[in-house]
Amino acid sequence: MGRFTDSWRSHLLVTLSGNSEGRPKWVGQIATGDDAGFFGSGSAAWAVHGGMATMVAGIRALLMQTLHPGAMAGVHDWSRYHDDPLGRLSGTIQWLITVTFADTVVAERESGRVAHFHDRVRGTYLDARGEKRPYAAGDPELLSWVHVVFTDAFLQSHLLWGDAIPGGADQYVNEWATAGELIGVQNAPHSAAELAAQLEGFRSAGTLKSDARVAEAVRFIRYPPLSRGMLPFYRIMFAGAVASIPREYRDMLGLKRSRLPVVWGTRLILGVVRALLGPSSTSEDAARARLARIARTQQLGHPGGA
């Protein structure tokens, strides 16, 4: 059992971080800097993004993202997810975790990296009415869609499987609006009600659609190239993510909620993962080390140093 547990933990760390020790090179940046970052210890963003429900949130966010034909075109035309699915995942994780836990300078630099990558992502797509439209990853509509579905996915997943959020759902949405603004999102929602209204706005406007590209992406997310030891656990979390999505979006994705107790099963898996990985991530540990260094420096009466 011990050998199986060690192997599963190693596979899990590689999947989540790209590194068997769970500490990719970019985590070192989080320990540098001279301020608490945009959120800081005790924030809603730290609570949500430091929780294990992020594993399910990522699945839900990727599924929901496919429903906007412009966003789907960008993934289809520019993403390497078929050839390097974990590389794409780790890139998204890098931005999310860095902005959450790093100091403001590093968070802004990482957001600039993402924005620079977006500069070259452009093309055309057929919208839900069958009309050809140009797209660019930096378009306000696409940035807003991705921000809204990611914020909604992480919030709803944490409400289902996480602990209490400091300040509640409104506080998390308000804080994470800052992250959206760092990469150019306009009119980011600042409350849970605004978030729900913006998400519904995309649907009621007839912007979203389901087609062969969506079906292909959903199949890939449902059956990713993971190790055999991880697949049974992933399938339960996938079913949990699907169960958390409102029916109107599940129908568009061609997915049905399982009749099995997958929400409970997902909670059980996340508890096992937490036991395997420990109470905090290497990113959060690096951030706390930075805060401790800053506090010691301030006590000594000297200006902070990197």
Polypeptide structure, described:
- The protein has 306 residues and is mostly helical.
- It is 64% helix and 3% strand.
- The protein has helices at residues 2-17, 27-30, 44-49, 54-65, 69-78, 85-101, 104-118, 140-161, 168-182, 192-204, 212-222, 231-244, 247-253, 262-277, 282-300, and strands at residues 122-126, 132-136.
- It has a two-stranded antiparallel ribbon with strand order 1-2.
- Helix 8 (140-161) runs antiparallel to helix 9 (168-182), helix 8 packs across helix 10 (192-204) and helix 12 (231-244) crosses helix 14.
- The longest helix is centred in the middle third of the chain and has 22 residues, at 140-161.
Q: Supply the helix-strand structural class.
A: mainly alpha
The share of residues in helices is 55-70%
Molecular shape: globular
Order of helices and strands: HHHHHHHEEHHHHHHHH
User: What is the mean predicted local confidence, pLDDT?
Assistant: 86
Contiguous helical run count:
15
> In terms of per-residue confidence, which ranges show pLDDT below 50 for 5 or more consecutive residues?
4-11
- Distance N terminus to C terminus? 43 Å
Radius of gyration: 19 Å
Report the count of strand segments: 2
Beta-strand fraction estimate: under 5%
Largest sheet: 2 strands, antiparallel
Strand order of the largest sheet: 1-2
